[in-house]
Amino acid sequence: FQLQIPGLTPPELDDDPTAVEVTPRILEVYLDNVCNMSCIYCWDGFSSQIQQENIKFGEFASNGIEIKNDAVKHNKHAELTQAFWNWMEKNSTTLRRFHILGGEPFYQSEFDRCMEFLETHHNPELEFNIVTNLKVSMSRLEKFVERVKNLVASHRIKRFDLTASIDCWGDEQEYIRYGIDMEKWQQNFDYIAKQKWITLNINQTITGLGIKSTPSLIKYINQHRKTRSIGHYFMACVNRSQLYPGIFGSGFFDEDFKNILLEMPNDTWQHTHAYNMMTGLQSEFNSHQRNNTELSKLHTFLNEIDRRRNLDWRKTFPWLVKELEHVV
Which residues touch 196 (CB under 8 Å, ≥6 apart)? Predict the structure, then answer.
């Protein structure tokens, strides 16, 4: 997919395809694990909220499920952070894409430093992208948008992309991306969608828990697509095997994927790429047999999540009860 985007290949490769010392064109940075949400597929290295939860409840190990306290800040974190900014001083003008990921950038002090850097430097070819859960106050969001708008207007950067993380819809989403407020998320997304100069994308992680409400998410996106373009990028959750949709077996989600694909547009190369990716994921999930071991692990995992967060997966996912009750 990246190879389809013009201008992002290191220029040295034009003359020497074997070159290994090249000029980076794309830079992705995880500044810190500070985050205000606890997504079910995430871990404490990417979420300070999960880190605090693990400290409170301790480690957990049962039926193949392990929850550990793994997040330890590198003992040279400050040194490495300064080394990064030193590198940026020397090399930022040759970058073409600059991505800030999380945790959640809006709550990280280094993100403010990033904005100050962009405001005091000049790269009119740079496309700046942040990946955000959009759980931020409207006033803070508006101030940020004005700062970035000034960066574009003054040609310090070429373009700004906002990639909003959202996986499905409704109560299911509030369980999966624990800490999200769907009403406030929609308010913030509606505001961003009105800023036509922003390149707007959706980043979706597909789990077995979120497929059934994905059509509602796409319907919402399509409402905004009537007035603007919105990119849609997604991937299957593979870092927690019990959340991988394939464990339910071939054909289990076929009706849901039928509804998903009916909602997905297929009229531009970006839309066609997303459509084909979704059909590819369906085929991938259908290549697996039902895995009762993983379903049993899912049952254990959800019970522990409920205990830690005072939730009730049976109420949120009533269809799942009959799928798990016989594997216990």
Answer: 228
Contacts 24+ apart (CB under 8 A), 10-16: none
**Does the N-terminal peptide bond of residue 210 adopt cis geometry, omega within 30 degrees of 0?**
no
* 8-state DSSP, 70: -
Q: Minimal CA–CA distance to 200: which of 168, 233, 170, 167?
A: 233
pLDDT digits (tens, 9 = 90+) for 220-247: 999 999 999 999 999 999 899 999 999 9
pTM of the model: 0.93
Nearest to 87 by CA among 46, 117, 119: 117
Are the C-beta atoms of residues 245 and 287 closer than 8 Å to each other?
Answer: no
Nearby residues of 236 by Cβ (< 8 Å), 6 or more positions away: 205, 206, 207, 244, 245, 281, 284, 285
Counts for the chain of helices (H) and strands (E), in that order: 13, 10
